[in-house]
């Protein structure tokens, strides 16, 4: 038996559940590379938030999910709006990701000052210039669990934007994919 498997075997047994605290889970999950998105809602609920908890759910019907903390401004904005967009960011959009992750930024329409965007045809949610891709969604389900809600949206429209490398988040830092050596 190698030392790694011995450590796994001794760390927990099926009959004795172990609770992992938020700090440990964050540390472990930081090893999972994710893409970076900006979720937006439009019209009278105009707001945006950087998120990496985003995934496709189903191809038929076309649907995606995003997870939003209960205390985030986006939680109420998305709930009230009932429609949203997800902008998939490119590597050169790190400043945009940092801007919409800043909890001290000005909220409302002012958070978009100086940024190029247009309202999505189906949602009115901002579609950000320079994004690699985007989806517009109608909120079709919300599942509250722990300190977050998983919002599921049926995709109303999807599009590709600029070409380029994806913005990634790994180990608490932004980055881009390494070139393939194949």
Oligomer: single chain
- How many individual helices? 4
- Which structural category fits the helices and strands? alpha+beta
Query: How many strand elements?
Result: 12
Q: How many angstroms separate the termini?
A: 33 Å
The dominant shape is globular
State the helicity in percent bands.
Answer: 10-25%
Per CATH, the architecture is Roll
- What percentage of amino acids are in beta strands? 35-45%
Low-confidence spans: pLDDT under 50, at least 5 residues? Answer: 1-11
**Full CATH superfamily name:** Electron Transport, Fmn-binding Protein, Chain A
Write the CATH fold name.
Pnp Oxidase, Chain A
Overall number of domains: 1
CATH class descriptor name: Mainly Beta
What Rg is obtained from the alpha carbons, in whole angstroms? 18 Å
Give the strand order of the largest sheet, numbering strands 1, 2, ... along the chain: 3-2-6-9-10-5-4
Q: H/E series, N to C?
A: HHEEEEEHEHEEEEEE
Major sheet: 7 strands, antiparallel
Instruction: Report the mean per-residue pLDDT as an integer.
Output: 88
